[in-house]
Amino acid sequence: MVELEEIQRIRYPPFEASRWIPAALPIAQRRITLGSFDSAEDAQSFLNVKGPSVHIGDEDSWLIQRSYRYGTDEMFPIGEAPFLEHEVYPNVVYRQRQGWYLIPNPIHNILRKFINAVVVVLLLSLTYLFLSPVLIFLSVPVYGIETVRWGLLDYPSLAVFVIPLIFAPLVTRVVANLLDLRRQNAFLKRGLTSPQIEFIKPSISDQPLEINLNFPEWDKGWKHVDVMWRVGILPPAREALLELLGREERQQPPPGLATELPHHWEEGLDDGTAGGEDAPMELQNVKGGFYLRPMRIMQTGGSQRWVDGEPINLAPPEPVWPGSLNSDLIRIHWECIIRIDRQQEGALLWVQPLKVAHSTAGMKIIDLPMHDGRSELDIK
Predict the structure, then answer these.
(1) pLDDT tier at 34 (50, 70, 90 boundaries)?
(2) Which helix (H) or strand (E) holds 72?
(3) Looking at the structure, do residues 136 and 150 belong to the same domain, yes or no?
(4) CB under 8 Å to 300, separation ≥6 — which residues?
(5) pTM of the full structure
(6) Among 8, 95, 196, 347, which has the minimal tally of Cβ within 10 Å of its Cβ?
(7) How far apart are CA 166 and CA 126, in angstroms?
(8) Coil, strand or helix: which one is 260?
(9) Do residue 268 and residue 307 come from a single domain?
(10) From CA 299, how far away is CA 320, in angstroms rounded?
(11) Helical H segments across the chain, by residue range
């Protein structure tokens, strides 16, 4: 008898993946024995009722792969109809990807770009001050190196212009966080009723999503509603990665994983690499937070403006993606997002997780749609 195995392999992008070289990070691999069979025909019959093979990315980049092997031969499930896997949602979906969410203040994104420019100005100023003696020796006119006294210390007069540039974004960020906290408190007091979503037909990864949408409660400050759906890869559970990569919980983590920060990470949620930088300041009395964390690998499907009484038809993402897959290592997640634009206080999001069946079409995605891990860059 020969064993039939399921092989799961993943190299998931850490937070701010653009700063990493994928090929330098390890691939976590798990082998699961599905059973032993006398013949390849018996193994194939068993495999045909399993989920399809999944290949997203490649060996030198980020990689999410599920394959099946019978002895030394790779096997592929043969599905004649769409197949829905029935695993329950991981904890991260219940905690962070369903219900009402706010849009972060756009000031956060603007300030992040401004801070980068300030750092460049600061480095150029320090370089100029360092080279100023050489410029004076060469009889080149220099400006801003005369000193001014602040308190008991003398500073170059150039600091009069540079130091306010350094502190201005910090002060503005504090103000933006205070405004966000005020919006969060106002939202909690409002107590909105959830929208009602009726699915017209089962959700399949290569077919349009058809729903009816109704709002039991409509606020006069709402302008319009847009509906979209998307698919992406959620971070694997940190504890599963550590186990497969041969690291103890209290040891130095493998490359690509950050040291555990108790206040910003919870077992079973994600890989813990964001370090609390994925969202602005939030009130702590709401589980999962007020801001929707973007999936770092994510593809958006169609979108449509809602009209009362009319059904919504959303085109599937392209290319064809696998359906829902929920394990502690590989998490392919689908969700429908209702965006409500308001006259004041920014937009509201309602997020509905979806159970989507795998298509019968072949699926292999090489060019990954990468996204920053910060919530202010997700849905603007």
Answers:
(1) very high
(2) none
(3) yes
(4) 228, 229, 230, 317
(5) 0.88
(6) 196
(7) 14
(8) coil
(9) yes
(10) 10
(11) 40-47, 91-96, 107-137, 159-190, 238-244
Peptide bond into 322 cis (omega under 30): no
Question: Are 33 and 68 found together in one domain?
Answer: yes
99 with 142, same domain? no
pLDDT on residue 297: 94
Which one-letter amino acid corresponds to residue 359? Answer: S
- Could you tell me which residues come within 8 angstroms of residue 198 by beta carbon, excluding any fewer than 6 positions away? 211, 212, 213, 214
Instruction: Count structural domains, the chain.
Output: 3
> CA-CA distance, 334 to 184, in Å (whole number)?
26
Identify residue 315 by its one-letter amino acid code.
Answer: A
Radius of gyration of the chain (CA): 26
Provide the pLDDT confidence category of residue 264 given band limits of 50, 70 and 90. Answer: low
Measured CA to CA, the distance from residue 62 to residue 367 in angstroms comes to 10
3-state secondary structure of 199: strand
3-state secondary structure 43-102: HHHHHCCCCCCEEEECCCCCEEEEEEEECCEEECCCCCCCECCCCCCCHHHHHHCCEEEE
Q: From residue 283, how far is each of 77, 105, 178, 266 by CA, in Å?
A: 47, 15, 11, 17
Provide the residue range defining the domain that includes 52: 2-75
